[in-house]
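Ex. 9. Protein: Germination protease.
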Amino acid sequence: MDSKFLKSMNISLDLALEAREVIRGETGQEIPGVRVDKETYDHASVTTVHIEDHNAQVIMGKPVGKYITIEAPVIRENNQQAHREVTQVLAEQLKKLFDLPMELNILVVGLGNWNATPDALGPRVVDQCLVTRHLYNYAPHELQGGMRPVSAMAPGVLGITGIETAEIVRGVVEKTRPSLIIAIDSLAARSAERIATTIQLADTGINPGSGIGNKRSGINQETMGIKVLAIGVPTVTHAAIIAQDAIEKYTQSIGGQPGDASMAIKKVLEPFGGNLTVTPKEIDTLIEDTAQIIAGGINMAMHPGIGPDDYAYYLH
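Predicted structure tokens for Germination protease:
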């Protein structure tokens, strides 16, 4: 599958790793201005894509910055020990993206629609994050050492609130004056194999809904006035991509050459405006597991002074 097909179907790639794979598959060489680092753990691999200049930004379709991708197929398995390792890997990678004194405020924003399971990752993460900003003001005696002032919110989506999400977040930022935003959102993947097995961290902020064609105002340093870190997990993939992959695999199996099936796929998807996304039937469990991992990683990174056994005391 090439970039021409993706463009013809109006599909943008949320994962920087997938954007790089598509472009490298077409050119056969590394993209100028893009640097890649890799790390391997027992249950996860980490690939960091550095987009270093404007030319690379144009080619990749991603802002200049750092994109850390944690690939961990074990997330789909019922393996709590492995999930704890992935949580620790996430915490360590997250800490690489910020360096703030412990007394500064951090705002966690869970983007998405809590009424639609594939889009409910952000709100589910917020439910499990340790919020402590109020304790600094009203109950400092409850705090242990090594805890930051953290606040959290799930602002909902435009269709529910009638307000652009970025406007809500910006209003909270103006009132509470955090030094950093961590935004969590559901993503769309080019490969179905990456659904609920891949976590992307980026220091470039986020555009809510961009992966499924909903163009919303960005939540980034330019719009918020402070640094924004984004954490995303693919929870859907495009039906057009699944259809094209199936056609390519079939033609290859019979010795044929894959052709451009975009017109036929558009015709099939016409009742949905050409924009149909697909999610696994077990998405409820996958969202629950990934939300727990992401919230755990954020808690570890934000509050190094307390352990997982102490989280329940502070969760309300």
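Check your answer against this statement. The two ends are 47 Å apart (CA to CA).
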